[in-house]
Design brief:
Layout (H helix, E strand, L loop, with lengths): L1 E11 L5 H10 L4 E9 L4 E10 L1 H12 L4 E13 L2
Antiparallel strand pairs: 1-3, 1-4, 2-3
Length: 86
């Protein structure tokens, strides 16, 4: 199966959804390269960036589930690098 490198950007405006996001990310832990979370207290939002190397359908499913949460915005930027998983 082919794998893609991507960066997922998440803005959380309803902080109570953070636990749900963490649970979804945990389901894909084997694909996550790195993660950075920044609480921006001045604006009462959290900003999360995820670097991931996974099959396209895994990335799409993850971002779709996250995007359905109320008060959460998600965008994905994909690398042109596509490789076969080993």
């Amino acid at each position: 199966m082919q794998s893609r490198v991507a960066v997922i950007s998440i803005i959380v405006e309803q902080i109570e959804n953070t636990e749900k996001i963490n649970a979804l990310l945990h389901e894909c832990a084997e694909y996550i390269i790195g993660r950075m979370g920044l609480p921006y207290r001045k604006r009462s939002v959290s900003i999360i960036s995820i670097a991931i190397d996974a099959p396209q359908d895994v990335i799409s499913t993850l971002t779709g589930k996250i995007g359905k949460l109320t008060g959460v915005s998600v965008k994905t930027a994909y690398s042109t690098v596509i490789s076969d998983e080993t």
